[in-house]
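= Tokenised fold =
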Amino acid sequence: MKLQYSFIAVSLALAGCGGSSGSDSAAAPTYDVAGTIRSQGSLLDTPVCIDLNQNFACDSNEPSAKSDNTGQFTLTSTDKNILNSTILAEVDAGSSKTLRIAAPGQGLASGNSINAVTTLVASLVIDGETVAQADEMVKAQVTSAGVSLTGTVMSDPTVNELTNLEQNTTALLTEMKVEEMTQGVALVAKKLSYENKSLVSGLLSAAETTAFTQELSLVVAQTSGSNDTGAVLYFADGASDVADAQTDFPGQDAEYGFDKDDLQTATGAGFKFVKLDDKGATLAADATEWSCTLDERTGLIWENKSADTNSVQFKDRTFVYESDTFEPYYEDLAVVGCVAAGDNICSTSEYAAHINQQSLCGVSDWRLPTYQEFYDVLDLGETEKDADDNVYGLNYAYFPQQGLGSPDVETGAVWLDDFSHVNYSAYNYDGGIQFAIIATKGADRGYVSFVEIYSDKVERDSGTSYQFPIRLVAVKGQ
């Protein structure tokens, strides 16, 4: 049975509760986080902190301590959040270099281990995964490389089976710039290989490590920006969508950001899009045919969909989700677009592989977008509508082919490379996972809801779950 759960995103202003006015601060309870740095080299007086802002640096306002010569440390704070926050160690790697390694907060007062492998898990948690999901993602890649683990990655990150991964990751972390680590380490964790060479089963040479680090730096630099919302009109008393700012209703979205300060004629908002041909060459803004759209704010390139029902890139062609850790459900496979087409391009991974083989727009590293990447490209000020009078959610001038979405949820949603553990997860079938769908057309564009997606582990004869179209993304220069 198909269930869809609604979700309303709200921002909460959280006040610290380490103490209260009028009370003796000495009476406030304290919390400890203790553990051991598992790294080579001299560990005496190594700075360790709770990385509250997740920037891979021990800032002066964060709870901190120094380790002893065996790498053991204890962090103490009146803030209970330290139990579930990232633990960071800044190890002296010699030659004026610092090895920044981390571990995800697991609610443990003691027994925390920090090494390069735990840093991979921590980076995925920072990227939005739960500790369990992040651990599973890393372990699945370890398993696919032919290495078997008896437990989870975090249960023993120093086992011999992870020695190559530890050494390779340590070498990369030592070379990475601190300002690039939040995104860069997550990129490594999501794909534990370089030039088809596994970080688990072999060791990178010094030259390969340098080249990999430089490539990561390039990717981070090209995807460091973000877009505005596209809202250029204002709410007024008794009216909406007016062009002038309202003194009675100050602080509206349209008063700030690129949509006001760097409005582009071609998009009617702050979006800076460029049309590309199938080789990746730039086209004029008034070109009537193009294959991809470059987002100059973020450095991301988006696939342009097709109106041709016979094309594998048809805007409404549906696919099942597939990844290294997720195999699709057999009933879903029986109803997706490949069945009628007869081309065996049925899943998200098969479609990405096909488009990469074509080197669409000169790019061979196409993938599903993340939740953040796709939400960032939504144009909440777009006014163009489809034949059913539903307003589009992407800029129509640069994304004219916007589909219905899932046949069961016709809100324009597409597959994203993110799954969530939410309150509804408790009601999943065994083998089902929750997927956040972003409404991309209609009055509810930008609205997020959750649906359950079945894997091959769900019991037979449970019916279909959900299938969605795809709009791939890549990084400029890849």
Summary: The first strand starts at residue 4 and ends at 7. The chain is about 20% helix and 15% strand. The radius of gyration is 24 Å. The CA atoms of residues 230 and 325 lie 36 Å apart.
